[in-house]
Write a structure and sequence with these properties.
Blueprint (H helix, E strand, L loop, with lengths): L2 H23 L6 H7 L7 E2 L11 H8 L4 E5 L8 E4 L6 E3 L5 E3 L4 E2 L3 E4 L3 E2 L5 E2 L5 H12 L3 E5 L20 E3 L4 E3 L1
Parallel strand pairs: 1-2, 1-7, 7-10, 10-11
Antiparallel strand pairs: 2-3, 3-6, 4-5, 8-9, 11-12
Helix pairs in contact: 2-3
C-alpha cells in the first residue's frame, strides 16, 4: 500500500467511526435541510443515492424532488468505470445492486445535473473522502467535462475533518449539506 493510500485508509477509518456515532445519535428529519436546498433546483435532473450502512438518508428529499422532476440513483457498472444513474421514483421496484445498494429493477438511465453525493468525510474546502473506489470522482469528472454538474455532499456534521488527504484525481464538492448547516464552496 502506498503512503497516500495508507493515509487515506487511516482517515477513512476515523471518519467511519465518527459517522457511525452520528448515525446512532441522529433523530428523524435530517433530510429536511437537503429538501430546502433542492427546492432551489426544482425540475433539474437529480441523482441521489440509496443509503447503506450508516449513511445519512436522502430518500425523503429525493421523494420530494421526484414530484417536480427526474430523479435517478447510481448503478455501478464495473470497477474503473463511472457511475450511471437509473430513474427512480418513490415506491418503484428495486433490486440488490453491488455493495448492498438497492437499484431500480428497470434500467432507465438519465444524465443528472445535480448529484447528492454520499461520503465518508468532508472538509471546509470542498474535499471529499469516499469509500475508495473512485466512482464519484470519475463520474463527476465525466459529467463536468460535458457541462455543469453540481455536487452536493450530504453528511452528518460529525463527518467534517480539518483536512483530508486528497489527490489530483479527487473531484471537489460544490456544497455540503448537514443536519445543521449548508456549506458552499
Amino acid at each position: 500500500m502506498s503512503d497516500a493510500a495508507e493515509v487515506k485508509a487511516r482517515a477513512r477509518e476515523a471518519a467511519f467511526a465518527r459517522r457511525r456515532a452520528a448515525h446512532a445519535a441522529a433523530g428523524p428529519g435530517a433530510a429536511g435541510r437537503l429538501s430546502e436546498v433542492l427546492a432551489g433546483y426544482r425540475g433539474a435532473p437529480l441523482a441521489g443515492y440509496m443509503a447503506i450502512r450508516s449513511e445519512i438518508d436522502p430518500a425523503p428529499a429525493m421523494a420530494e424532488a421526484a414530484a417536480h422532476g427526474t430523479v435517478g440513483v447510481p448503478v455501478i457498472e464495473g470497477a474503473g468505470k463511472p457511475l450511471k444513474f437509473s430513474r427512480w421514483s418513490p415506491g418503484c421496484e428495486m433490486k440488490d445492486g453491488p455493495f448492498g445498494a438497492r437499484v431500480p429493477a428497470v434500467e432507465d438511465f438519465i444524465t443528472p445535473e445535480i448529484l447528492i453525493v454520499p461520503l465518508v468525510a468532508f472538509d471546509r474546502r470542498g474535499g471529499r473522502l469516499g469509500y475508495g473506489g473512485g466512482f464519484y470522482d470519475r463520474t463527476l469528472e465525466e459529467l463536468r467535462a460535458k457541462g455543469p454538474a453540481l455536487a452536493i455532499g450530504f453528511a452528518y456534521g460529525a463527518q467534517e475533518a480539518a483536512a483530508l488527504p486528497l489527490e489530483v484525481t479527487d473531484q471537489s464538492l460544490d456544497m455540503v449539506v448537514t443536519e445543521n448547516e449548508v456549506i458552499t464552496f
